[in-house]
Amino acid sequence: MEEASGQAAGLVVGFEANGGVLVGSDSVLEGKKLDALPTRDAVLPMLATLAMAQQQKCKLSDLLKGLPSRYTFSDRLQNFPNEQSAELLALLQKDAQQAQRIMAPLAGGIVATDVTDGLRVSFSNGDIVHLRASGNAPELRCYAEADVQENAKLLCDSCLVRVAAMSGL
What we know:
Structural class: alpha+beta
Mean pLDDT: 87
Helix content: 25-40%
Strand order of the largest sheet: 6-10-9-8-7
Largest sheet: 5 strands, antiparallel
CATH superfamily of the largest domain: Alpha-D-phosphohexomutase, C-terminal domain
Number of domains: 2
Distance between the termini: 33 Å
């Protein structure tokens, strides 16, 4: 996050599958400064949403109706050494066709990739799949995002099945 904060023009924010939010840069609203919060904080998104509803003078339910439907799902392959994760991610970063076949073969073409923390790929249908090595265990983690809850789970599960098969697990 420190590296991204030095390169980004706007606010740097990270999200965790468990609901935690990390803010990697200071933010200012109406002359009041909120210092960067590079630690997990699950309360900040709730407060920000409540503040936005108050600012727009609407009910929280009305504010949320205007947001796009997005769902996430995450899982992991256990006993997947970090060296093996690094090799897989390097292969997928070099070969976009292979990345598409492994990560989401039915999601359309790749429209963006981000290698800030593993490999995060956005597809033309709006789906996103992110693979990364765990920072605290020999695991490969997969995070998926889609417009429909069932699709997010299917994306994650099927990606991990394909990774396991290609890795001989």
